[in-house]
Task: structure prediction
Amino acid sequence: MNSLTASWIYLLCISISLLLPKNALSIVLPDTPVLIQQDYHDKFSVHPPLMNERKLALTNLEALSSLYTDSTGSGWTTNLNWMTGDPCTNSWYGITCDASSTSANVISITMIANNMVGTLASEFGQLTALTYLSMAGYSLTGTMPSELGLMTAMSSLFSLFSNPFTGQVPSELGMMTALTRDLAIYYTSMSGSIPSELGQMTKFVK
Result:
């Protein structure tokens, strides 16, 4: 570094320091200026609960966006408000959110006679607060994502029957141990044996 460049950097550092509170920066000048922002976390960090809430909102949006894209949402019979704003605050068709939650969890998806054609992506499994899923009788193909097992809050209904899924029944579905009603995955093109892990789902109402 030549002396002219060093001088300009030094002046730049001094100028910045004059614009900031006294304790905001500590300036060290060895060969290269180093700026250390001492109170960064106190002044500029996001409050953890708010960070978690934003992360959840982004996760919901990512999961539902993948559903829309991969099942040809532009061709659904009804796609009111989808892909516009937040799915909870903007009332996306077929989506119910937990209004009592500050993070507005997506807890229910109900799609009836809505012309869904395509596949389910692994991102769909990120809807871990979902308690009710009804998307039966469509043309959803490919394998059923193992990530659906992450929907461990599922308790009322898990219905994907009459879709031509192929491959095997994911053993990970056995993680949905809170399910008390139907695990409706019949009338598909899946093959193979029933995973023993489904035996963990012991809360079914007889």
